[in-house]
Amino acid sequence: MNINYLLVFFLFLSTTVLAQTGTIRGSIKDAKSKEALIGATVRVDGTQLGAAADVEGNFTIANVPAGTHKVLVSFVSYKTKEIPNVRVESGNTTVIDTELDEEGTALQEVVVRGNRATNTEVAVITEIKQLKPIAVGISAQQIQKSQDRDAAAAIRRVPGVSIIDNRFVLIRGLAARYNSVLINDVITPSTEVDTRSFSFDLVPSNIIDRMIVFKSGSADLPGDFAGGIVKIYTKRRPEQNFVDAGVTLGYRANTTFQTVQTHTRGGANWLGLWSADQQLPNSFPTQAGNFNNLNAPQRAAYARLLPNSWGLKEITAMPDLRFALNMGRRFDVGDVRVSNLTSINYAMTNQFADIDFNVYQPGATANSIGQQYRDLNYARGTRLGVLHNWSARFSPAFNLEWKTLFNQLSTTETVIREGQNIDNAQDVRSYSQRFENRSILTTQLAGEHTVSELTKINWVGAFGYTGRWEPDWKRARYIRPLESEEPFTITTPNDPTPTETGRFYSRLHEYTASAIGNYEHTFGNPTDREPNRIRFGVYGERKNRDYAARFYGYQTVGNATETLRQRPIGSVFAPENVTGQSGGYSLLDGTRDLDSYRGINSYVAGYVSGDVYFGPKANLTVGFRGEYNDQQVRATIRGTDTQLVSNKIFSPLPSLNFTYKLSERTNLRLAYSASVNRPEFRELAPFRYYDFNLLADIQGNTTLTTATIQNLDAKWEFYPTPNEVISVTGFFKHFNKPIESLLLLQTNGFAYTFFNSQSARSYGVEIEVRKGFANSPSVFLQNTTLVGNVSFINSQVTVGDVVTAPDLSGQINEYRGVTDTERALTGQSPYLINLGAYYAAPKTGWQGNILYNVFGQRIFTVGNIDNPTVYEMPRHVIDINVTKQVGKQLELRFGVQDILNQPVRFSQDFNRDGKVGSDVTSQSADADQNIRTFRRGSYFTVSAIYTFGRRIVVP
């Protein structure tokens, strides 16, 4: 009902504004080249009314008093043009399409007009306005104002978008698995092993041209989505030759200059690499049975090949360092215009967290703790990124581009856990020494062909690679009787298990090859503002994944002395102690056949769509997309190649997008689309992975099926000026067989798996406002822009009578009454709020902004009859950034992120009422329980960007 009131109000407002006035619209082009003159000024003489031409050269001036006027058109280096006797009628639109001639005098600076600007706020708003699906976006210009370091930080400024774990995107409150991510129109692979997620922190912000988030589907977009489709466009070609470099120093409260403990990896660790001795020697038997059949001294001899790198060292966490070097070149090779853009980014960061971690006993008593720990977590991260783009314009009808993006991110993480396992009457001291390297490479060759004014063809051939390594992840656990003063002794059970002392190795390689072709034909006059078009295309992709893991656990041979078992972590496994003789240590291989798997996915899609115009105001785009997906998971079991999963599915995906122009500045959009959500390899593979930080096992489910989603959207949008927008969007989604995570029944810790619920629905409203004050008498307000978006969402899942899921052994079972039958959808936030105030004074060189972000509590993991559902709780985040331009070559920036430094908090809904309150300490039946709590620390940055030279290139 409230949404209806808002729509009626805005419609009435827009109608009132247009009363007794008319509109002038048209286009401005270069008289010689016929290129759009972006930013050309159009003014109604004798009034304050005017507009600037957008990226297509189009302009609109609304609220022009009825009558006859003189219109002035001007642009730098062009002759001003006067158009007399322009008649404006009340309620009607007058069209002016004109051209400007260049001035004859030479200028010191020549503006390059050969390229269409796509990275400004006006350009992105114009693009969104012209798109047929419902979409929102953010430009490189706004990212620069916000001083966001990477795509993850930047995209949370977009309506309906929030971030989890500082790298995964949630759209409309839906989990990352419901998003598709494309870089330059090519689907990116998942960067995570355990979930379908793209790690947005791998993309530095300075290589981004713009990001567009599609909220409704269309035939030319991938069908695997429910939240949204994110398109990241990297910078294409420079407008001028340049070289600039920037350095950023960062200070994080609670981390920088603090004494922390870490471990050594050796090698080129500062580049995210590791030394050769961190890898498992090739001489190790490849089969666990062959290794374990050796006698204890033989196995110990292998163990001594592994470095004794268990020792920790204290260091002082230094300030974070980031460096960026950007270069752009344009030159001619004969008649071919060639452009190159290269960007190199490097970062080394530090993060310390003091984490409170609790595991509660199931039962009727609130906050009855079974395990209680304090984790001292220190992580040093490095990132190396390279963007290398080439563009060749052979003619106005043929462009060729080669784009390559490489990012490598590593984390060296050390966790020291101290606390109590009350259930087992033990004091506990545990260690985790983990190194992770993630690499992603995408390279694309793309061509654009203009066959005629009516026909265009484009194609892309792409190759992608994702790699993830965890070399020699060392874990150890010491215990002693509860609350005693006895020395801690290390645990070395005879049956190796990832929860105990041992070494874990894993590596993942995923290769993806893609081919894309699109055809577009325009019917009638191509200069029409809204010509009829038909589009069709194909998308083919082949993905191969190879994942392998090995785990080795230490065992005691005979009766080891207490003195040996009480040695500190740095010397307990010294070579002289790993002998395989009685009283010493040996090694056992705990690897299972299912700890390695292979995934093969073949994906073929074809689409066709067309526009149907019902006069100048109404447009309907009808589309159909067919997707065939063949997903397989295989593993070698007892020496035999075994097929574990084979999902071959054809998905018919129709779509409708309807736009009605209420006025030149106001649109009403309606959209329908069908989409799917496919399980990922890791969710299907019956591989058991242990997450030390969460004290949890994660188990795949081979019975997962593809979810289907029906999507409905309605949007009212109003564009007061080219860089302003007000919009209200309502949406409804129905899910059949949604994929969710589930807590398995287990004592002493957590275990997660994945399953299909019966159905779910989600609906909500999004409100976006972008407001400037260009006509204000106040200079301060003229330089100020306000941006805000708010989303309110409601969701509900019907689980069904039976849950099909595996236990920790991988055995598939049918559970009844294992969890709540109705609740909110996993990962769904009930509300999202993003607010920002931007100030930019070009004459003084000052820029600044203040930004606010919060999301509502969302389900992290679905609970069961013993363990309640776990929620991630809201955090209010405020950022402040200030920039000062010093001369023409130096730019200085200062920023403070997360000023409030509110805790990251995961809590159990003990009383199962669907919400977590503030009472998390009492023993009452209404109390809820904090599981994991820590603060990241406010973050202060100082940056300097120096431009070594810019040379304007004459087209």
From TrEMBL:
Residues 134-227 form the TonB-dependent receptor plug domain. The keyword Membrane applies. Pfam families: CarbopepD_reg_2 (PF13715), Plug (PF07715), TonB_dep_Rec_b-barrel (PF00593). GO terms for cellular component: cell outer membrane. Keywords: Cell outer membrane, Membrane, Receptor, Signal, TonB box. Belongs to the TonB-dependent receptor family. Its main location: membrane. Gene3D superfamilies: Carboxypeptidase-like, regulatory domain, TonB-dependent receptor, beta-barrel domain, TonB-dependent receptor, plug domain. It comes from the Bacteria. Residues 1-19 form the signal peptide. It is found in: Cell outer membrane. Residues 470-897 form the TonB-dependent receptor-like beta-barrel domain. This is TonB-dependent receptor.
